[in-house]
Amino acid sequence: xxxxxxxxxxxxxxxxxxxxxxxxxxxxxxxxxxxxxxxxxxxxxxxxxxxxxxxxxxxxxxxxxxxxxxxxxxxxxxxxxxxxxxxxxxxxxxxxxxxxxxxxxxxxxxxxxxxxxxxxxxxxxxxxxxxxxxxxxxxxxxxxxxxxxxxxxxxxxxxxxxxxxxxxxxxxxxxxxxxxx
Length: 181
Description:
Blueprint: H1 3-19, H2 21-26, E1 34-37, E2 42-45, E3 51-58, E4 67-72, H3 77-80, E5 86-88, E6 92-93, E7 100-106, H4 111-114, E8 117-124, E9 127-137, H5 158-167
Parallel strand pairs: 2-9
Antiparallel strand pairs: 1-3, 3-7, 4-8, 5-7, 6-7, 8-9
């Protein structure tokens, strides 16, 4: 550690000691902040749907100097989404100060979001932690009522042919020119 970092660390320890003397008395190890959620690096989303991505973090030592924020492709969300389609919620801190939460709210997930990197950052005097995630698309399954034929939804086109073919016990090959099986 060079003298500049050592001096900064000494000042930091003095501030922590003044604010939290029990932390210094109980342990010489300072708890670094850490991201608790999101846990995964890839989150599955439904394109076109609203989505909320939450970052929960443990500040290590509760203090007033810790902040949690999101970055989108290494820039702040309000700069990345000038149209307001994606916004950041206010920071929430638990009563005991052991958890800080901040969310990104997507009014509608788009293809642009699927190409972006989203990074949750916690920054405190005790250190920094970050977690970068990507969004990947999933498609909603279409659920048809039990009494309804799915072929009704595509006007009797390709799906009708597949449904009809799947109901036959043996496949039938039909000559397209004559229409004769």
